[in-house]
Design the sequence.
């Protein structure tokens, strides 16, 4: 009985190191935005984050963008859009100090495969997260980069020293067009 308890405790301690939140529809709330014809496709989804951050997901036609909002921040209604692609995965992988404050988030962004209704290239976007600040700090191609998750986590470890608007995002692993698109960021804010 003691051996089982020790094994479970070790597994529980390891699991506590990974902090994931969901951006799946069932775990979020929806609000339509815009009142013009055609705006019914423009949905804003609010999902739980870590350390007071809300993850915002906006599906706009054939594009999907992800950003952050701090309801208790300086501008509680302002969304800071960080990354955009055709679609995204269902989880956000948070990294940061043990106090629950995130310094980075990793989310899988998907690109449409040659005008087909399926995903092609998939990139792990590494987003710098700090109070009222979010931006892409790196990207890793998830399809051709060996150990892509480990590479993305290595980029996220540098989050505390990354300054949005000053430092240049990097591509970890194999450099592909989709990863380059991710590090270019979103033109409109």
Sequence:
């Amino acid at each position: 009985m003691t051996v089982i308890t020790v094994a479970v405790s070790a597994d529980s301690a390891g699991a506590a190191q990974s902090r994931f939140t969901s951006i799946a529809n069932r775990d979020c709330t929806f609000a339509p935005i815009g009142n013009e014809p055609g705006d019914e496709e423009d949905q804003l989804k609010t999902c739980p984050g870590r350390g007071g951050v809300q993850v915002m997901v906006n599906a706009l036609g054939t594009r999907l963008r992800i950003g952050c909002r701090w309801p208790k921040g300086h501008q509680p209604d302002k969304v800071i859009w960080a990354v955009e692609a055709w679609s995204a995965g269902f989880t956000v992988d948070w990294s940061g100090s043990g106090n629950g404050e995130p310094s980075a988030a990793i989310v899988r962004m998907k690109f449409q495969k040659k005008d087909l209704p399926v995903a092609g290239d998939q990139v792990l976007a590494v987003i710098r997260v700090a109070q009222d600040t979010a931006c892409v700090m790196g990207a890793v191609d998830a399809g051709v980069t060996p150990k892509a998750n480990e590479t993305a986590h290595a980029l996220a470890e540098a989050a505390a020293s990354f300054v949005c608007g000053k430092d240049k995002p990097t591509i970890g692993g194999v450099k592909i067009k989709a990863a380059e698109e991710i590090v270019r960021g979103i033109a409109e804010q």
